[in-house]
Write a structure and sequence with these properties.
The complex is a heterodimer of chains A (about 425) and B (about 300). Chain A is α/β, with parallel strands linked by helices and about 425 residues long. Chain A has helices at about 5, 20-25, 30-35, 40-55, 70-75, 95-105, 120-130, 145-155, 165-170, 230-240, 250-265, 280-285, 295-305, 330-340, 345-355, 365-375, 375-390, 395-400, 410-425; strands at about 60, 80-85, 110, 140-145, 190-200, 225, 270-275, 290, 310, 315-325, 400-405. In chain B, α3 packs across α12 (about 275-300), α8 (about 205-210) packs across α9 (about 215-245) and α9 runs antiparallel to α12. At the A-B interface, α3, α4, β1, α7 and α8 of A face α2, β1, β2, α3 and α9 of B.
Chain lengths: ~425, ~300
């Protein structure tokens, strides 16, 4: 706007001239000096007292005392009810499996789809856990990742009593026992799992996609999606260099960071996605992206898209949503009974039919196949599609290429996330 | 007309402080009355502004970690770290906020002018139309821009089909998309204050200027524009501050190089649990914005700022 500067001082000249002003108008500075209270001795004392209060209080450490399994379970008995926090759409609207549980045991379950995001759910319950109060849930489902590490490091989870879990011992797949993030399933057992791999849209990508290196291909400049999560992004960069994420250390991470930076600076990455990459992949904003198997299966089944999903030749990762009992749970015995009940193959198969993620119970595959044979029409077709899907039932060969997450100690965690967030939030 | 002129005599408040006249027999209760009336506001301010800001200030000077707790150690290094690590995102936020504000001004001023002077009987209808999109949630409005700006979407698709744009061009997930989104979302915050000033202006001043042989342009530049500056000032503040601190637009419409400082603060709090760092960045942002506003106020003349705030 030319002329603005010239005109800015005043549209109309001040009607008072200088001498006039000193008579008719008290000097504002003087007026302020007269009317405004100056800091009295008392105020100064008060201010320093406030500073002392501030320095005295800090944010206290939030870890709970470590519990042994025997101590935790001693004297605990079933109370006939429990409350369960799970993700939305992780059980059918009828809550079939919970009804079956109530029928079998007489225990009533209060089911709540309270977990929409690991970060925010943990943020919500953390103050209560730090104070040793019940969070209102006896069983909750959170994913492998940073929050899980923190929950374990802060001793917020009840150590599981495997004597109470015969089904888990009998039916859980080998792959779901002894994962690197929770050796010996001390605190968690999987509810459902999925693969982090690569999805692409064959409408735009006309060659075969085989591995992570394709995500670094300049041919797809500006059309590649990466995940914003520090662990997800780092896993792929580590695997690209042939490093096993579960056994990686600081040196490897530094190399992975420079790999990711190189990819970003070359303009290859369009964006780092939280979980909204499926729509862009469908409409062509993205051609190829890091992706979760369940999302791709659901999008193809519901929208009729033909997105492809592969487990990269360098390897992908196996993530799990895990059931766990907070150490402040009021009804832990009922919770562990439900945990174990969901490992019965027939029950696990029923869950898988609805949620389309990988069940941690291999025998569920057989159950679904048998059910498909017995069914007819649309139902048969849907069940067969499910049973044949490598996204829901990965082959043994696929499993060999799936890696676990980096198990991080409390000390490493901060460094790790800072390093990788610096890349995804540049 | 008269209200836009500087007061010919000192403002009454300055000349005679209320309820403090020594000649009046002022009882104790009477003297306390204004303070009592103001008490709820002060209490509100103390509780929801002073206390949080003091505790944030002390957190920004703490050190420690989540497991051991954070203790106040007067760790001023947090500030140095915050600036050294995140100056790019800070600078970017200010740049995006600045661009969006200029864009709002360029679009919003003519809109406000037109509604105020040419709106006639339908002024309120036009204002309602302007505000109508605000009835939809902020986040939803931003997300709908994703569909609008998609690579093969309603805008870019046809342009590519007729060869005006190269096939590889994209707007979504770039800086212009973020700035456009910000400007779109905060446009009313610019239009309304400018409109409020223009609407109160006596249009006869323009006639007077023309009587004095000013052309239309001259009349606008020398008369209307200077008189509307307080509104522009308010509008700039009301758009620049929230746009610089916004992170939804960068999150939804931005790409791999467009992270704004709001997102950094969020992830420092929620992902890294680095409370001191998050608090330090918050204060740096606040300091930079305040410095910007005060130098801007100085450039435009402080009295006008007070005038705006009095409204």
């Amino acid at each position: 706007m030319p002329g603005m500067k010239r005109a800015a001082p005043r549209p109309f000249p001040e009607p008072h001239c200088e001498e006039n002003r000193s008579v008719s108008r008290t000097d504002p500075a003087l007026l302020r000096g007269l009317t405004r209270t100056r800091p009295s001795r008392r105020t100064v004392l008060g201010a320093s007292a406030l500073a002392m209060v501030l320095s005295a209080c800090g944010v206290r450490g939030q870890a709970a005392e470590e519990l042994s399994g025997a101590d935790f379970w001693e004297g605990k008995e079933s109370s006939g009810k429990l409350s369960f926090a799970n993700w939305p759409l992780y059980m059918d609207a009828e809550r079939t499996q919970l009804k079956e549980f109530t029928e079998a045991t007489g225990i009533e379950v209060d089911y709540d789809e309270a977990v929409a995001e690991n970060k925010s759910f943990f943020g919500k319950v953390r103050p209560k856990l730090a104070d040793g109060d019940s969070i209102g849930y006896d069983l909750m489902v959170l994913s492998t990742g940073v929050e899980l590490t923190e929950l374990m490091a802060l001793n917020y989870l009840a150590p599981l009593d495997h004597m109470k879990m015969p089904n888990f011992d009998a039916y859980a797949g080998q792959r779901y026992k002894n994962a690197t993030y929770d050796q010996g399933n001390r605190f968690t057992v999987p509810y459902a799992s999925g693969i982090t791999g690569i999805a692409y849209n064959p409408k735009y990508v006309d060659r075969e996609i085989t591995g992570i290196a394709d995500l670094w291909d300049p041919e797809f400049k500006g059309k590649v999606g990466m995940m914003a999560d520090a662990q997800e992004a780092s896993n792929f960069a580590l695997l690209l260099d042939g490093v096993e994420p579960g056994g990686s250390g600081k040196k490897d991470w530094e190399k992975a960071v420079s790999r990711l930076e190189e990819q970003r600076e070359a303009g290859i990455v369009r964006r780092y996605y939280e979980q909204d990459y499926i729509q862009p992949l469908t409409n062509g904003d993205l051609w190829i992206s890091m992706a979760w198997s369940g999302d791709v299966f659901q999008q193809n089944a519901e929208e009729g898209t033909e997105l492809e999903f592969i487990v990269p030749e360098e390897g992908g990762t196996l993530w799990s949503d895990l059931m766990m009992i907070p150490y402040t749970a009021k009804n832990p015995v009922d919770a562990i009974m439900l945990m174990d009940f969901l490992y019965e193959p027939r029950i696990a198969a029923g869950l898988t039919e609805y949620i389309n993620f990988i069940p941690p119970v291999p025998e569920a595959h057989q159950e679904i196949k048998e059910k498909a044979e017995a069914a007819s029409g649309d139902e048969k077709e849907a069940l067969e599609e499910l049973a044949d899907s490598p996204l829901v039932f990965p082959s043994d060969e696929d499993y060999t290429r799936l890696h676990d997450y980096v198990p991080l100690g409390a000390a490493e965690l901060k460094e790790f996330t800072s390093m990788f967030l610096a890349v995804t939030q540049a | 007309m008269a209200e836009n002129l500087p007061p010919p005599t000192p403002a009454p408040a300055e000349a005679a402080p209320p309820a403090a006249g020594a000649s009046r027999p002022a009882g104790r209760g009477r003297r306390a009355l204004p303070y009592l009336l103001a008490a709820p506001a002060w209490l509100w301010l103390a509780l929801f502004f002073l206390v949080p800001i003091c505790s944030m200030l002390s957190i920004s000077l703490m050190s420690g970690d989540l497991y051991q707790g954070y203790v106040l150690t007067w760790e001023f290094g947090n500030y140095a770290d915050a600036v050294a690590t995140y100056w790019r995102q800070l600078a970017r936020s200010l740049a995006y906020g600045g661009c969006a504000t200029l864009l709002c001004l360029a679009v919003g001023y003519p809109v406000a002018y037109w509604i105020a002077f040419r709106g006639g009987a339908y002024k309120n209808t036009y204002l309602l139309l302007l505000l109508l999109p605000m009835f939809v949630s902020f986040v939803l409005r931003t997300i709908s821009w994703k569909a609008l700006l998609a690579d093969e979407g309603v805008v870019l698709g046809p342009l590519k089909d007729i060869g005006l744009l190269p096939e590889a061009a994209h707007v979504l997930n770039t800086a212009p998309a973020v700035v456009l989104g910000l400007a779109y979302n905060f446009l009313p915050f610019m239009v309304l204050p400018v409109y409020a000033v223009l609407e109160r202006m006596d249009h006869r001043v323009v006639e007077a200027a023309q009587d004095l042989y000013a052309g239309r342009v001259r009349a606008f530049v020398s008369v209307v524009l200077p008189m509307s500056l307080p509104g522009v000032f308010a509008g700039v503040i009301m758009t620049f501050i929230p746009t610089s601190a916004d992170y939804i637009n960068a999150q939804v419409l931005g790409g791999a190089h467009n992270t704004m400082v709001g997102k950094i603060i969020e992830s420092q709090y929620l992902v890294n649990n680095a409370y001191p760092m998050a608090a330090a960045i918050t204060f740096v942002l606040m300091a930079v914005l305040l410095a910007g506003i005060f130098s801007y106020a100085r450039a435009l003349g402080t009295e006008q700022v007070m005038e705006v705030q009095a409204r």
